Amino acid sequence: MSLITALMKTVFGIVLILFAGFFLFGLFGSDDENEKNQVVQIQPSLAASQRCADAKDTGVEYGITGSGINIREGPGTSYDKVINKKATQTLGKTHYVQVDYTVTVLEVCQKGGWSYVEVVKPDWLKESHRGWVASRFLRGQRRDTAGIRVFTEEDFIWDKNTSPYKGTIITGVNKIHRENERCKEIDPASAYLSDSRSTPDRPVFFVTCGAGTKAFNVWFSEEDLKSGKAFKAARHISQSIAIQLCEQYARQVATHPNTVDFSRVLDLAINEHANGRTAVHSTFSAKNSFNLEIKFRIRCLLDATGLIEATVNEAG
Questions:
Q1: In this structure, are residues 205 and 193 in contact, taking their beta carbons and an 8 Å threshold?
Q2: 239: closest CA among 282, 209, 179?
Q3: Which of 26, 161, 233, 285 falls 20 to 30 Å from 198 in CA-CA distance?
């Protein structure tokens, strides 16, 4: 058999294997029950793989029921609690790793009523918060027929200010999560009564969407829900119009508007925020009352309706 013939047979065999794999995935790769349980595609850490050597693999994301739940080195109360090294070093006193209802965990495996978990949300706890917890503290995350997460009472933090409005808060947060495309990542535990927007006869609530520098609040009230108000993501203003409006403001505040030379290239920066607002940063030069040319820095904040505010400072 020639080398070319052998290579052709090898390639043909690989193609057949790939085709069979895709065919079988089409038959068996989708399972409605698995989708409801949110079988995740996150690869467990090497440490998890070692700890789960003789346990049942699962790979499902869960919420946590309760608070102050210790993570242990092994599957049972006889094992030591995992020490929170960073907190212990910072505070000079032993602190243990704990999880509560504000986190989402990946259950890697189960063994004798215990689950090896790794925190996946918030992601900054991934490396430190991992180990064994009693499986009874894990709770499934409800999803609707479209596969969208449904938040329930256990996902929220309740106190005397929010408990009387449970129905409104739960309904509002779920509606915002469904309708606002920028609220796919939403923190139900952040939902609370707004001190600045509420009145004695009209409570207003807010919930935080996104994370880090992209986090923003969405406000809602019972009247909003009853009226069917849509919570779609705010539309950004056209960037060209935003620049134009910012330049117009520079001319309005200048002593000699015709001398304004607004930078549209070198010093220009545009930031579109998740809450629908746009910030324009730039510089411009203009002559003052003594006919001296001075350079200024300008920052404009806009939304779809136009200019909200602007600040101008002399460039140092």
A1: yes
A2: 282
A3: 233
Q: Which residues of 116-150 are buried (b: 16+ CB within 10 A; e: fewer)?
A: bbbbbbeeebeebbbbbbebebbeebeeeeeeebe
CA angle 178, 182, 186 (to 5 degrees): 65
Phi, psi (degrees; rounded to nearest 5) at 153: -55, -35
3-state secondary structure of 276: coil
Question: Which contiguous run of DSSP H or E holds residue 272?
Answer: strand 269-272
The CB-side HSE value for 285 (13 A sphere, CA atoms) comes to 7
DSSP 284: E
**Cα–Cα distance, 58 to 115 (Å, whole number):** 9
> Residue 199 carries which side chain, given as an amino acid letter?
T
Using CA atoms, how far apart are residues 224 and 217, in angstroms rounded to an integer? 16
pLDDT average per 10 residues of sequence, the chain (316 residues): 48 46 39 39 56 85 87 95 92 92 89 94 89 92 84 90 97 97 90 96 95 90 96 95 98 96 96 94 96 96 97 92
How far apart, in whole angstroms, are the C-alpha atoms of residue 170 and residue 224? Answer: 14
User: What single letter denotes the amino acid at residue 219?
Assistant: W
Provide the 3-class DSSP secondary structure of residue 119.
Answer: strand
Which DSSP string do the residues of 46-93 spell out, in sequence order? HHHHHHTTTSEEEEEEEEE-SS-EEPBSSSSTTSPBPB-HHHHHHHTS
Within 153-233, residue ranges assigned H as helices are 166-179, 222-227
pTM check: above 0.70: no
State the pairing for strand pair 278-287/293-303: antiparallel
211-224 b/e with 16+ CB inside 10 Å = b?
Answer: eeeeebebbbbbeb
